[in-house]
Structures are given as C-alpha cells and as structure tokens.
Write a structure and sequence with these properties.
A hairpin with a 4-residue loop joins strand 17 and strand 18. The chain has 2 domains: about 180 residues, FAD/NAD(P)-binding domain, CATH 3.50.50; about 170 residues, FAD/NAD(P)-binding domain (3-Layer(bba) Sandwich), CATH 3.50.50. It is of the alpha/beta class. The longest helix is centred in the last third of the chain and has 17 residues. The strands form 6 sheets. Strands 1, 2, 3, 4, 5, 6 and 21 form a 7-stranded mixed beta sheet that branches. The chain has a 5-stranded parallel beta sheet with strand order 8-19-9-10-15, with helices on one face. The model has no long low-confidence stretch (mean pLDDT about 95). The radius of gyration is 22 Å and the shape is globular.
Length: about 375
C-alpha cells in the first residue's frame, strides 16, 4: 500500500494534522492502534476539564460550540473530537499497531501488524501520555492495599471513607486528590521535590491568557516576577510542605515540566482535607514510611508518576526530529512530531499551530 503521508495516532494531534492535509489536498493514511479516535481522552478520569479556555483550545477550522462552558469537560471534548473526525471525513485504520519505520529509497516503509505501507512523509502524533511510568518503590510488593497508576483511575466513589496515598503532585495527582477529598476520601499527596503551582484564573484572568501575554517578556523577568504574583494569589505554600523548584517556572516548562494548574487543590490543602507528605522511603504491609520517618496507614495508593512518549519503540534515533513541530531536521528528514510540546499557553492550542505548520511544510515539498 502507498500513500503520501502516514499519520501515526488518531488523537487530537493526528486528527488536526489530517484535517490540515485534507484542506491542502494532500492524501494521507491515519493509523491508530485503538478502536476509536482519541482513546486517551476517553479513558481519562471523569471529572477532568480542560485547564485552558475553549476559545484557545480548539483544533484548526472548528471552534468549540458557544454553548460549551469556558473550561470544557472531558465528555464534551470527546464528542467534539468525534464530530471533528466526521466533519472532515477522517477514517483512521483502527486496530493497527506500528512496529517500525525505516527508509526505503526516497520513501519510508511503515511496518505494521497489518502489513507494510510506503509513504513519502511520516507524522508521529502518538502523544506524550502514551506509556505510564511505574516506578519500583521499595516494599511496594508487600503493600496489601490497592495499587494503580493514575491512568487507571476513573472516579472517587470506590474510595469514599478510605485513606488514599497519591504519589506525585503533577496536574493529575493534584486533581485526583481533590476529586477524592470532595467525595469523602482522605487523600495524602507524596511530593518528592519542588512544584510550581498556578491558579487556573489569576485575579479573574485565565492563566492561559496570562501566559500568552507574557511570552514576549524576557524569561528571566517572568521567572522573577511570577513567584511574587503567585504568592499574592495562592499564599506562601511552604508552611503546608510545598516548595518551589529552584528552576524558574518558564525554564521548567521549556524542560517539559508543566506547572500544576490549581482548580481547588490548594484550598483543600489549607483546609486540611488533603494532606502533604514528603517522598516515600518504602511501602509497608498496610501503608508507607516517608523520608522524614513518619509512617502512615493507607487503603490504596494511586501512582500519579507520569507518562512518557512511546515512539522510541518504532522510530529509530536517526529518524527522530529535534523537537515537536516544524524545524530544520524534521523538514530534512520528512518525519514530524506533533503534540509533544506543552507550553503554558496550552497543549491543544499548540497542536493547532503545529498541525497547520506541518501541513504547509509537507504540501510545499
């Protein structure tokens, strides 16, 4: 089988690139190992909403409906992505896993479990959350409570009245802790190192808009100014066991460390409904011991320990671009990554920008 472009992944990034290519008159084939579009969005925990405003979170050519709330809930995002695929007549080949990609003359051979596909260009859009990271904590095999990665968490109801340890305070860990606290559980977050926290709205202005407005300012000025503003907005959180990293907030984002966008977790911590503990020294049969020597009992442990991209398994190093979007190496290779850069201005917004740029670059070559 031959096509102009193979797109690996039918999440928001893959759909956005496909729509842009279709508008440019370039033929393509979307490969998706799941059985439906946007599989990651479908399995996210139920209370999830976009942390970015809908007006800056839609994919190219199709805004979110005006009737949707400012911060769109998960189920409406899924419906939007379904409608997006239908609107552009996007028909991924579902249940197809890409095993390898290699050069074959001036083209690429994309080997899948359904056969080989020859393509002039390749777009990898499998996302940053393709593979759960499961650290091997000392003693975890002795723990008799329930252990799961945050990817498997859906709702708080089964944990009502229970003591739950959340390992990791990224956006997922912070929001799951809030979900649990609001549903009658007793969550404690283990925070291994410093964390930047920003409110979803800063003095009534969406933090995404603040990020967009501040991009023209020098990074050093932003990194000096933001902690002072955030102390006014959130208070000094050191007294609750949360410290900021030495690395500035924008420096962290450039390195792939996204700040926690607070939607109520900080207030719950201040109210004592969510506890904070340091790093785990080891698990015990009925709980965990922390590095400060304190031991606590838990009924369950949710590992909000992050994700990693999974394209290394099929894309050899010599075919990997320097970064997400259009850049000199991607254009030279004919291999593009889309959806792997998550700036403070929002991942979905960035996906739209990258998708249009990649489609233009492919159409122009």
């Amino acid at each position: 089988m031959e096509t102009n472009v193979v797109i690996v992944g039918a999440g928001p990034a893959g759909l956005a690139v496909a729509a842009c290519l279709k508008q440019a008159g370039v033929d393509f084939l979307i490969l998706e190992k799941a059985d439906e579009v946007a599989p990651s969005w479908r399995r996210h925990y139920r209370r999830l909403h976009l942390h970015t405003v809908k007006s800056f979170s839609s994919l190219p050519f199709v805004p979110f409906p005006k009737s949707h709330p400012r911060y769109v809930p998960r189920e409406k995002v899924v419906a939007y992505l379904d409608a997006y695929a239908e609107r552009f007549g996007l028909e991924p080949r579902f249940g197809v896993t890409v095993n390898s990609i290699r050069r074959e003359g001036e083209k690429f051979l994309v080997e899948t479990d359904a056969g080989g596909i020859s393509a002039r260009k390749v777009v990898v859009a499998t996302g940053n959350n393709a593979q759960s990271i499961m650290p091997d904590f000392p003693g975890i095999e002795e723990f008799k409570g329930k252990v799961l990665h945050s990817a498997a968490y859906t709702e708080a109801a089964p944990y009502a009245g229970k003591n739950v340890l959340i390992v990791g305070m990224g956006n997922t860990g912070a929001e799951i802790a809030l979900d649990l606290a609001e549903s009658g559980a007793h969550p404690i977050i283990s925070v291994r190192k410093g964390v930047h926290i920003v409110p979803r709205q800063l003095f009534g202005v969406p933090i995404q808009m603040v990020g967009i407005a501040s991009r023209t300012m020098p990074q050093a000025l932003n990194d000096w100014m933001f902690p002072k503003i955030l102390d006014l907005a959130l208070g000094r959180l050191e007294r609750y066991g949360i410290v900021r990293p030495k690395q500035g907030i924008l420096q962290g984002i450039e390195a792939g460390r996204i700040p926690v966008i607070d939607i109520g977790t900080v207030a719950a911590i201040k109210q004592g409904r969510i506890g904070i503990a340091p790093d785990i020294a080891s698990f015990t049969g009925d709980g965990a011991t922390f590095v400060d020597g304190v031991e606590k009992k838990f009924d369950a442990a949710i590992l909000a320990t992050g994700y990693r991209p999974a394209y290394n398994a099929f894309l050899p190093a010599q075919l990997r671009p320097d970064k997400s979007g259009v850049n000199a190496r991607a254009s030279e290779l004919g291999v593009y990554l889309v959806g792997f850069y998550n700036p403070v201005t929002g991942l979905l917004r960035e996906i739209g920008i990258e998708a249009q740029a990649v489609a233009r670059d492919i159409a122009g070559r």
